[in-house]
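Everyone, describe these structure tokens:
***
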Amino acid sequence: MTSIYNNTVYNGLTSYWDFLFTDLADPRTNSWPLISSPVPGLTIMGAYLYFVLNWGPKYMSHRKPFRLTNILIVYNFLQVLVSVWLFWEALDGAWLYNYSWKCEPVDWSWTPPALRVARGFYIYFLAKLTELLDTVFFVLRKKDKQVTFLHLYHHTVMPMISWGATKYYPGGHGSFIGMINSFVHIIMYTYYLLAALGPKLHPYLWWKKYITTLQLAQFCIAFVHSLQLLIYDCEYPRFSLFFILPNAIFFYYLFNDFYNKAYPERMQQLRKQKEQKDTKAE
């Protein structure tokens, strides 16, 4: 009796697993490395969090920080190239010519244009995994203040979201977020590349705070663009808004809080404006 019950439970769990990770998946992308099962990706994420929160800091506790200058130059240069490629693929393969800015379903066909977009999603997902090295380098360089909740949340959530998009909906309306995010990363990693090249360029890097402003604008644009799914019948899953909209709001809150703490002059300006309004009201 127990054996029959165990077999029934096992078969039920297996069927549910197959339904979630095979039947619902896009057959064009589901066989690609790291996509068919969530286990490899979750293993990478678990190892990442264990390193940056536990093993890495312990390992570095009695060691001098690594400089990693050449590694950082090569790494940031490659990230710029990948971001440029992703941005161009999104523009040329979708949003400039083929996609509607208001409403765009996923093209599930095996045509070259549809597969090009799906491939872009996959490369975007792989890029999110490589960006985990941002935190690894912070730990090895003992830049502990950079390993914030915002940083860890962003680097943990984005690979999981991009994995899900690649596996289930590689194309359509949701690709807009990846396009604008790739554009922001072109600017961001260009800044990191110039900073890694040495102190001679540091006086010209006064525009760092505007990267955060650009990121805040990104979340607002993504929020408004995604809201169109509530207005138009795009044949794109509206349930995706349960992931997109709360994350856009939460990211905006976290980045705005970071901006206010990193650049306190903005808060001072806001206080002065409020005091002036209060004075006029009196």
